Amino acid sequence: MVLGRSDGPEPVFGVWRMALALALAAFLGGALGLVWQSAGFGEDDEAEVAEEPVEPVDPPSN
Fold it and tell me: Most exposed among 4, 14, 19, 34, judged by the fewest C-beta atoms under 10 Å?
């Protein structure tokens, strides 16, 4: 079953544009991730974690 005219030009899917957009998005995402990481957003405060007391666990006796 034909869904369109067969005598017209072939449809252009814009593969090169989609590939360029994907590469650009990957580059920008990586760059923003590095900026986010270097700015310290989303990290746990290491001093806060280190101050929590750790209680030793006694091994079970038989």
Answer: 4
Distance separating alpha carbons of residues 20 and 37, to the nearest angstrom: 26
C-alpha 28, offset from chain centre: 11
pTM of the prediction?
A: 0.49
Distance from C-alpha of 12 to C-alpha of 14, rounded to nearest angstrom: 6
pLDDT digits (tens, 9 = 90+) for 9-47: 766 778 889 999 999 999 999 999 999 999 888 676 555
Report d(CA 11, CA 4) in Å as an integer. Answer: 11
